[in-house]
Amino acid sequence: MSIRDLFTISRKKNTDNITKREDEKAFPEGIVTKCPKCKMIHVTKEIEKNLKVCTKCQHHFSLTAEERIACFLDKGSFVSMDDHLQTTNPLNFPAYVEKIEIDKKKTGLNEAVLTGVGALKGMQVVVAVMDSHFRMGSMGSVVGEKITRAVEKATELRVPFIIFTASGGARMQEGVLSLMQMAKTSVALKRHSEEGLLYISIMTHPTTGGVSASFASIGDYNIAEPQSLIGFAGRRVIEQTVREKLPDDFQTAEFLLDHGQLDAIFNRLEMRDKIATIVKLHVQGGVSHV
Amino acid sequence: MSKLMAFEEPVVKLREKIVELKTIATEAEVDMSGEIEKLESRLQELEKNVYANMEPWDRVQVARHAERPTTLEYIERIFDDFIELHGDRTFKDDASIVGGIASFNGQAITIIGHQRGKTTKENIRRNFGMPHPEGYRKALRLMKQAEKFNRPIICFIDTKGAYPGKAAEERGQSEAIARNLFEMAGLRVPIISVVIGEGGSGGALALGVANQILMLENATYSVISPEGAASILWKDASYAKQAAEAMKITALDLKQLEIIDGIIPEVAGGAHKDKEQQAIIMKEYITNTLNDLNKESAEQLVENRYTKFKNIGQYIEQ
């Protein structure tokens, strides 16, 4: 599957396959791992040590929420929140509950986002990490509620809120309730912002649809990982509408940076340091957050 | 002549039959008044029945009806002294969103809405009511202006969705929508959003972070079009009818999901059957809603909007 197939709704393919990149196939328990981009063969342990970034072409493999926390926050500082919230089936969609159960077992998460309080180089922050391995990271009621509560926690503690987004967008099986989570998370972020607090949005592969069109795009700082797919509408939908071939780099982080939609792209290997620096520049000086 | 919708077929057919019968009766000079009378009362009954038992898919047809009144048609019937204001001050004027200032029951207000075209030519100019980022940025500019002058904001939602195009992505469609959600949350004036036709996904919601959300009886509001949902669920867009049902997109569904605050009734058969009467009904509902919101302080308005959206969603705490 090429990168351009990722965000398109295909009639033939099951939606479950949409975000499955070659990464995942490339990461079995095996000893070696092949980079889907440059085809370089890596020793799995070595590439894991390198935060799952290809040493040859800098391809960023997708991370689970736990892996992200492990490589971003101070060791052992993270305390998760709202793991008790459970998804229901408000529209009575066939097989929805079963699908959620499968992904819960697969990821160890209660939903497609992991939230909690932790420390970044000693500075207290509230963090939310979306996990694309759980229903494509799509946002339904629980994801919306968890993010909203995390933002409210950050407002209450008067600390920065940092999110790593990875999502196909609003979750179809919860219909218009999913759509409304875009508004819900936004009203919480507005309140956090009015308190003069810092919000950093870090977009990772993929960040599309309703997530891209809500909290992901309104950080005080909008950051992305290299080559991440970021956009509102799906590539194939756009190609059908405009009837022209889109450039290969369309909707990549680099494309967005070039069009003025991002503050910066940070490589995963420098992410912790760079974000810590941004937070530090807000904690010290003019406005104190702690 | 308005387009025939499938669910209306029995009504239309019977009406045609009556006309036919009348013609025959006149031409042949026979008295058939008894039969005609019977059929006419049957027609009335049928009409009542058909319009009272509309399926979600029937409502989708009504919501998309070419003759369905648009934002500008309501504006001219409901508000006085409307002055349209253009442009986002950055890129251009997006004609798929209209906005301006007007007087409503003597109170200055700001009005913003998606605007479809009625003819092909107008639809091309208005991009079929599907905005680019500059449309949302114009809307936000007018909302901020309303806040400065302490004017309530009334939004009419009527779009298939934000435009999925190359230029829209390049200019930040996501950011434009997201920014509206975020900024609307903090506006210190009353906001009323009325879904008058199709409420398509994020492109609709970008005018929808309101204190009170109303929907016309046959309007729809959804995360994805029935066709889109069908092609995902059944891998076939022709299952749109089933999807319209499954996705819970009608005004009644949204009221039951506790998302919207009120349903504005439509004239029998849909708003397009009698625009004047529909505008009168709409005006009454907006008047009542605004009268209530006018009593709230700026702090209460922001707080209540927060609570309203915070409470949307269904989950279990275990």
From TrEMBL, chain A:
- Sites binding Zn(2+) sit at C35, C38, C54, C57
What top-tier enzyme class does this entry carry? Answer: transferase
Q: Which pathway does the UniProt entry assign to this protein?
A: Lipid metabolism; malonyl-CoA biosynthesis; malonyl-CoA from acetyl-CoA: step 1/1
What does this protein's record comment on cofactor binding? Binds 1 zinc ion per subunit.
**For this protein, what reaction is catalysed?**
N(6)-carboxybiotinyl-L-lysyl-[protein] + acetyl-CoA = N(6)-biotinyl-L-lysyl-[protein] + malonyl-CoA
Map the zinc fingers (C4-type) to residue ranges.
Answer: 35-57
List the InterPro entries. Answer: AcCoA_carboxyl_beta, Acetyl_CoA_COase_Trfase_b_su, ClpP/crotonase-like_dom_sf, COA_CT_N
EC numbers for this chain: 2.1.3.15
What are the record keywords, sorted? Answer: ATP-binding, Cytoplasm, Fatty acid biosynthesis, Fatty acid metabolism, Ligase, Lipid biosynthesis, Lipid metabolism, Metal-binding, Nucleotide-binding, Transferase, Zinc, Zinc-finger
One annotated GO molecular function: acetyl-CoA carboxylase activity
Instruction: Describe the task this protein carries out.
Output: Component of the acetyl coenzyme A carboxylase (ACC) complex. Biotin carboxylase (BC) catalyzes the carboxylation of biotin on its carrier protein (BCCP) and then the CO(2) group is transferred by the transcarboxylase to acetyl-CoA to form malonyl-CoA.
**PANTHER family, per the entry:** ACETYL-COENZYME A CARBOXYLASE CARBOXYL TRANSFERASE SUBUNIT BETA, CHLOROPLASTIC
Q: What protein is this chain from?
A: Acetyl-coenzyme A carboxylase carboxyl transferase subunit beta
TrEMBL record, chain B:
Among InterPro entries, the record links this protein to: Acetyl_CoA_COase_a_su, ClpP/crotonase-like_dom_sf, COA_CT_C
Q: Which reaction does it catalyse?
A: N(6)-carboxybiotinyl-L-lysyl-[protein] + acetyl-CoA = N(6)-biotinyl-L-lysyl-[protein] + malonyl-CoA
Q: Where in the cell is it found?
A: Cytoplasm
Task: Name all CoA carboxyltransferase C-terminal domain ranges.
Answer: 38-292
Query: Which GO molecular function terms does the record list?
Result: acetyl-CoA carboxylase activity
PROSITE patterns in the cross-refs: COA_CT_CTER
Could you tell me which pathway this protein works in?
Lipid metabolism; malonyl-CoA biosynthesis; malonyl-CoA from acetyl-CoA: step 1/1
Record has Lipid biosynthesis as a keyword: yes
* EC number of the protein: 2.1.3.15
UniProt entry tagged with the keyword Hydrolase: no
Q: Which UniProt keywords apply?
A: ATP-binding, Cytoplasm, Fatty acid biosynthesis, Fatty acid metabolism, Ligase, Lipid biosynthesis, Lipid metabolism, Nucleotide-binding, Transferase
Q: Which domain of life is it from?
A: Bacteria
HAMAP family membership:
AcetylCoA_CT_alpha (MF_00823)
Q: Please report which protein family the annotation says this sequence is part of.
A: Belongs to the AccA family.
How is this protein organized at the quaternary level? Acetyl-CoA carboxylase is a heterohexamer composed of biotin carboxyl carrier protein (AccB), biotin carboxylase (AccC) and two subunits each of ACCase subunit alpha (AccA) and ACCase subunit beta (AccD).
Q: What does this protein do?
A: Component of the acetyl coenzyme A carboxylase (ACC) complex. First, biotin carboxylase catalyzes the carboxylation of biotin on its carrier protein (BCCP) and then the CO(2) group is transferred by the carboxyltransferase to acetyl-CoA to form malonyl-CoA.
Protein name (Swiss-Prot/TrEMBL): Acetyl-coenzyme A carboxylase carboxyl transferase subunit alpha
In its UniProt entry, the species of origin is given as Solibacillus merdavium
